[in-house]
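Appendix C: a fully annotated inverse folding record. The material below is reproduced so that readers can follow the format used throughout the book. The structure is listed first as tokens, followed by the designed sequence.
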């Protein structure tokens, strides 16, 4: 008798190797995966824009990086003496507009270089719910706790998401023909949008990811969302907020990811490195 439905992802047709260069972009789950890859000593540009949930902003930032564009001047905002930008996470801040502008220009430039050199781009889509800045009529990545009346919140239509990503994919292919893309849908639940709308949002993202993998043989999908929802399927695998996967869940998903995506040499290295880390963390009882 089985009390657990295990999901074993298919092996990717192209594996990630120890010498591959990787860029991760998207929700906080992208940062978790990127951090684990970096811990395995891979060359990773990990979530350079900070946490970005919606695909529209992800696409916009990547295109800006490839085009060497400057951050949108209309979307800088000052709050309590701190400067922020609505296209970037609040981890990107400064005490002056000029300081922040220079910092964001560096981030975009370095990300553009990383994308041109990368073997893999890993995109984690968090939510199809977007916030439109009413004054500029632009979808933003972060409202930065500015007054709610400055924004309009709505579910982005699947047709428009397709159009956004088709533009992005054409640019990525021109800039780096060897690039492979790995899509995931974040298992983090956006309960603030209500569980009902969160379900619609996740379904929209999952449909988009499915269609892209059908249309392009250089785009792949890893089922982090399904592993969390259908394999682990228990609140003991969530943090106390009942929203974010806990460390045990993250490790489980990472093991599934390694089995699905890593080549034999990288899997062997990860095993050896785990033993070395364990030995280094060991403290003798006497000494």
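Designed amino acids, in order:
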């Amino acid at each position: 008798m089985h009390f657990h439905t295990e999901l074993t992802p298919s092996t990717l047709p192209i594996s990630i190797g120890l010498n591959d260069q990787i860029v991760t972009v998207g929700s906080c789950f992208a940062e978790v995966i990127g951090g684990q890859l970096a811990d395995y000593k891979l060359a990773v540009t990990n979530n350079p824009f900070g946490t970005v949930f919606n695909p529209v902003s992800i696409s916009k930032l990547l295109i800006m990086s490839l085009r060497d564009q400057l951050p949108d001047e209309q979307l800088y905002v000052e709050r309590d003496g701190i400067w922020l930008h609505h296209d970037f996470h609040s981890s990107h801040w400064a005490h002056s507009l000029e300081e922040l502008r220079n910092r964001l220009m560096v981030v975009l430039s370095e990300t553009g270089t990383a994308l041109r050199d990368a073997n893999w781009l890993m995109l984690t889509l968090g939510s199809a719910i977007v916030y439109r800045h009413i004054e500029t009529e632009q979808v933003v990545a972060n409202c930065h706790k500015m007054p709610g009346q400055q924004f309009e919140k709505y579910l982005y239509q699947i047709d428009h998401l397709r159009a956004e990503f088709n533009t992005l994919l054409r640019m990525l292919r021109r800039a780096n023909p060897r690039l492979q893309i790995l899509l995931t849908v974040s298992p983090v639940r956006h309960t603030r949008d209500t569980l009902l709308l969160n379900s619609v949002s996740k379904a929209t993202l999952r449909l988009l990811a499915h269609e892209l993998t059908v249309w392009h043989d250089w785009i792949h999908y890893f089922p982090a969302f399904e592993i969390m929802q259908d394999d682990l399927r228990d609140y003991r695998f969530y943090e106390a907020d009942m929203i974010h996967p806990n460390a045990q869940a993250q490790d489980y998903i990472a093991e599934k990811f390694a089995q699905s995506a890593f080549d034999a040499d990288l899997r062997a290295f990860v095993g050896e490195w785990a033993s070395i880390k364990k030995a280094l963390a060991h403290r003798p009882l006497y000494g």
